[in-house]
Amino acid sequence: MGGLERVYELGKDFRNEGLSTKHNPEFTMVEWYEAYADYGDAMDRVEQLVIGIASAIDYEGPIDFSAPWPRIPLAQAIKDATDIDILEHTERDSLVAAISASEKVKLDVEDRAWPTLVDDLLSKYVEPAVTNPVFITDYPTALSPFAKQHRSEEGLVERFEAFCNGMEFANAFSELNDPDEQRRRFEDQVRLAEAGEEESQPYDEVFVQALEQGMPPTAGVGLGIDRLVMLMTGRDSIREVVLFPAMRD
């Protein structure tokens, strides 16, 4: 990273997404990258940062931020909530059949690719039930094209998202630093896009060429400041914590 082993940026992000109590097109995020670290180190840092903030402001709300936060693999979290094992249904048709047969799950499966269906199970059946902070870890490769392969679990990557009070507020992973594997991942993303996956990543050859110059093992984190403020202040809507939540023509 330009000779710097630890870098961070705190600034504004803009995404062309819909409005909700958890989403605003303009939001504030802190991102950091740490060389010679992995997603386990990143979990430790997120946990320490949030607990430190809660302590500094004398937080007295209903959320228990105390360590250690649970670390639950994504497949286990979804299975606990829905009885569906996504690792047993790694093809779209198989997962659609499992969802259709489930008495617990009601999802629109038409024109939904496998990664989108997995994300739907997470966002609609796992995320809303979370109160105290938890790390959901070890995502399927198809959901995380920039994350490094898991060191011991085939088909998974070293990624986590931090959830609290029914929403995700941080996303991180051990960065994929193998240019050949990254090229293959981009090719997979192109195929997903052709199959109708709206969240697929475009092929970025310049990024692959940059990786070919060499990159050390690295952990990267993105943490939403607005959502963190919501947690610390007990607010239910992001509109209550941003300066200009809406603009008129």
Automatic annotation (TrEMBL):
Gene3D superfamilies recorded: Bira Bifunctional Protein, Domain 2
Domain called Aminoacyl-transfer RNA synthetases class-II family profile: residue spans: 1-245
Keyword tags: ATP-binding, Ligase, Nucleotide-binding
Coiled coil spans: none
One Gene Ontology term, aspect cellular component: cytosol
Residues of the signal peptide: none
GO BP terms in the entry: lysyl-tRNA aminoacylation
Record-level Gene Ontology MF annotations: ATP binding; lysine-tRNA ligase activity; tRNA binding
InterPro entries on file: Aa-tRNA-synt_II, aa-tRNA-synth_II, aa-tRNA-synth_II/BPL/LPL, Lys-tRNA-synth_II_C
Name of the molecule in the record: Unannotated protein
Organism of provenance: freshwater metagenome
